[in-house]
Write a structure and sequence with these properties.
This protein has about 500 residues and is mainly alpha-helical. The protein has helices at about 5-55, 55-65, 65-70, 85-90, 115-135, 170-175, 195, 220-225, 230-235, 240-245, 265-275, 275-280, 290, 315-320, 325-330, 365, 375-380, 475; strands at about 85, 105, 155-160, 190, 210, 235-240, 255, 285, 305, 335, 350, 395, 420-425, 425, 440, 445. It contains 18 helices and 16 strands. Strands 1-5 form a two-stranded antiparallel ribbon. The chain has a two-stranded antiparallel ribbon with strand order 2-3. A two-stranded antiparallel sheet has the order 4-7.
Length: about 500
């Protein structure tokens, strides 16, 4: 073999080697392209499936419309799946509330590899949403266009973004552009301070929330962040709506024409949950606080140390308005109020059919506690006389709760000329009934009722205690013959 043949054979081997290397390079490039296509397809499938499974068509529309903002603010994407989403955030544009931020500046250097990778990853991430929108909506090509689709190899400009986008107007004015109907409540007499100042985001999330009305947290927790009521809610009795954080059942979160930002007047508001009290609004006699709808004049709205949610213990609470009654209960003879016996034992604190808010009229009222007096009194000569003709209701200087001392009280109805020991200036021989004399039988001052008569009635005539008239037994209780010293008259 000649040298020429050897050279030609070597050239053929080199050409074959180069051709083989070229084929290998093409296969590598093809493999890389396939891998990239698979990655892109995986990205498409993942992105589209995630969007459709979690949010459906509306979320896809949202992502596509706001794609330029969400390329950086990816942390906001999950918010669309929250139960409550703000309409501008979900259905319109971020720029409804925010000023587009950032600017382009000229650069002379080529794009570095890290920028290329970042741009490429963004293309992979967001391209499926762009393609979906371009296929599903006729105007899609104009929505969500971004510099991320630019050629990643070189760049003559660079996007510089500030740290804060800023709002299109101050927060204290922005919300009113859409929620202008709330402006009428600014004229209410009792506004909520954040609402009056336009600080809506003190309570509401401007994008989305797990809670209705876009609240920052559960309603039962939100109010307590500014209105801690631990002291009130730790008391012996708590109002269930307050304890459970159902503040909005009673209070308007924005403003109200009722003190305390109540949703309605106290009387209307309280009777919604206390219908048994509402029934009393038709009764003839109403307690002034109840009549005026001043429920908190007597009751605490959140919690109290005294049941039922009273501002103070009975009878001290009643004495705040009825100070003259307090003086009556300090007299020597009085009803035992303040223990098991309370003001509300006799008086209804809301309303009643009878004067002085009592549950019955006439002697029937007293019989509620003094039933044992009914039988004899109703068959006695005193039956037409009401108990309060002789007794006071609260307290007296005369025992037992008498309007005046005995026998002066009796002489208001019974002529003293027939019973007293003297009249005016004429001395009679009638029986003395003055307390200045001593009743040896009762061992007490002598009066009409000490030994002779029972004012509440007896089974004997003339309401005598021991013997019928004309029998001498009643007289002999005191005027009997005794051994030694005599008392009275011997027969």
């Amino acid at each position: 073999m000649s040298d020429r043949d050897v050279v030609e054979e070597d050239d053929l081997d080199i050409d074959a080697q180069e051709e083989q290397d070229e084929r290998r390079a093409r296969r590598r490039r093809g493999l890389i392209a396939v891998i990239l296509l698979l990655l892109l397809l995986m990205c498409c499938c993942t992105t589209v499936s995630q969007v459709w499974l979690t949010g459906g068509r509306e979320q896809a529309r949202f992502l596509a419309r706001n794609i330029e903002c969400l390329e950086c603010h990816t942390d906001l994407i999950p918010d669309f799946s929250e139960p409550a989403v703000h309409d501008p955030f979900a259905l319109q544009q971020c720029t409804t509330c925010h000023v587009p931020h950032g600017k382009k500046v000229s650069v002379t250097s080529a794009t570095v590899s890290s920028d290329l990778m970042q741009r490429f990853s963004r293309i992979l991430q967001w391209a499926p949403i762009r393609w979906w929108l371009s296929l599903s909506e006729s105007d899609a090509a104009q929505v969500g266009s971004s510099s991320t689709t630019a050629d990643p190899s070189t760049s003559s400009s660079k996007s510089i973004k500030a740290t804060d986008s800023g709002l299109i107007m101050p927060e204290t004015e922005l919300c009113w552009t859409c929620h202008g109907s709330m402006g009428a409540k600014l004229g209410d007499e009792f506004p909520h301070e954040p609402f009056a100042a336009g600080r809506c985001t003190n309570c509401h999330n401007p994008h989305a929330s797990k809670y209705k009305s876009l609240l920052l947290m559960a309603p039962q927790d939100l109010c307590f962040t500014c209105h801690p009521m631990v002291g009130e809610l730790d008391r012996m009795q708590t109002h269930p709506p307050a304890k459970e954080g159902r503040c909005l059942e009673c209070h308007d979160p924005h403003a109200s024409n009722y003190q305390g930002m109540l949703v309605s007047s106290q009387r209307v508001l309280c009777t919604r949950c206390h219908p048994s009290v509402e029934l009393k609004s038709t009764m003839a006699i109403q307690h002034v606080p109840f009549l005026n709808g001043d429920c908190t004049g007597c009751h605490q709205p959140h919690g109290s140390r005294y049941t039922p949610l009273l501002n103070a213990v009975q009878p001290d609470l009643c004495y705040q308005c009825h100070d003259s009654t307090e003086k009556d209960f300090r007299r020597p003879s009085h009803h035992p109020v303040g223990g098991t016996f309370m003001c509300t034992s006799c008086h209804d604190p809301h309303a009643a059919q009878y004067l002085n808010l009592v549950a019955a009229t006439g002697n029937n009222f007293c019989y509620q506690c003094h039933e044992q007096k009914r039988e004899l009194y109703d068959t006695s000569s005193h039956a037409p006389v009401r108990c309060d003709r002789c007794h006071t209701s609260h307290g007296s200087n005369n025992v037992p709760l008498l309007q005046e001392r005995n026998p002066s009280l009796c002489f208001q109805c019974h002529s003293r000329s027939g019973f007293d020991e003297r009249t005016h200036s004429v001395a009679n021989k009638n029986h003395p009934v003055r307390g200045a004399h001593y009743d040896v039988n009762a061992e007490a001052p002598l009066t009409c009722t000490s030994s002779c008569h029972d004012p509440h009635g007896t089974r004997l005539n003339r309401m005598l205690r021991y013997f019928d008239y004309h029998r001498d037994g009643t007289c002999l209780m005191c005027h009997a013959v005794t051994q030694g010293s005599r008392v009275g008259i011997d027969y």
